[in-house]
Amino acid sequence: MIKSTLQNNTAPSQEVSRNGSQPIVNKVSPAAQTQTAEDDMNPDDFIALGKPNGDLKPGLYLIATPIGNLRDITFRALDTLNGADIVLCEDTRVTGKLLRAYGFKKPMQVYNDHSSDKQRENIIAAVQSGQAVAILSDAGTPLISDPGYKLVRLAIEAGLHITSVPGPSAALCGVQLSGLPTNQFSFLGFLPPKSAARITALQAWADAPGSLVIYETGPRLADSLTDMMQVLGDREVAVTRELTKMFEEVRRGMLSEVIAHYTENGPPKGEIVVVIAPKGEVVVSTESLEQQIIKALETMSVRDAAEMVAKASGKPKRAIYTLALKLASK
Ligand code: SAM
Hints:
The structure is a single chain. By secondary structure, the protein is an alpha/beta fold. Helices cover about 40% and strands about 15% of the residues. The protein has helices spanning about 30-40, 45-50, 75-85, 90-100, 115-130, 150-155, 170-180, 195-205, 220-230, 255-265, 285-295, 300-315, 315-330, and strands spanning about 5-10, 60-65, 85-90, 110, 130-135, 160-165, 185-190, 210-215, 235-240, 250-255, 270-275. A hairpin with a 6-residue loop joins strand 9 and strand 10. Helix 9 (about 220-230) runs antiparallel to helix 10 and helix 12 (about 300-315) crosses helix 13 (about 315-330). The two termini are about 20 Å apart. S-adenosylmethionine binds near residues 215 and 271.
């Protein structure tokens, strides 16, 4: 029986079009909107609010862009794009569409994990010669499971001006919607695609405090969740999908329940962030502990079932083992 819960947001939204060439969003008018806000503000607030900025000083500008909904762009991101001399991006077709949607026409240059030292040096030289260089990824916050880290390091060494223009990141949206603890979490990025390497990678996080946040793909999801249950125990999980898009969905439940769902229904489409509860976080009553053990005993030996439930619940292994032995003999 599937007990996982589902939240489905079908409210209409404007999504980043990876196919259409038409601008799919009304042009935002930051100046007009900030003008209204300025009327009610004192000068100190006004500095915090910021002003549209035509001239950018030379530097590297790390600009976050939408992860699905085109309206998730900040006034400052638009101002900065407006002032940038050149836009570095992973794929000029993807970023070209995004820029057109906001009415910008900018020189673009591909920058990705395969970019050479020479290319990085050229970018640094461009900033040193007075250019404002924007870095964008296909979607979301640059450098977060996306290229840019080496370039930022080089720019720091060269003493260049670097600033973050923050905005959406799938990891943070996933954590927010998960319903799991947000005070501490570890971002694991993408796990290795092969099971053996994935299990080894997960073992390093088994005792980490806080929630675990993982980027995953639909076709790999069920196998990956199964490895997570094997290493971390049957913890609470939230599979967050298509965040900020028309078919945004959050499936919450125990790992075992959510695995059963995807095994039964096949891999989900779209982009995915998995959030897993911290070790021992789930408050389990004696009854649900017993239920967990009984369920585990359907497919596991007493020893394995006890170990998994102990891991997930944070309860002493010996006590769980004794309970498992009793339940197995019934
Ligand atoms: N830098 C980006 C960020 O800040 O979110 C992440 C880039 S990473 C290459 C892409 C992965 O992020 C996807 O495979 C997926 O796991 C996650 N992701 C991106 N957009 C998403 C969305 N709208 N909903 C759920 N996950 C998303």
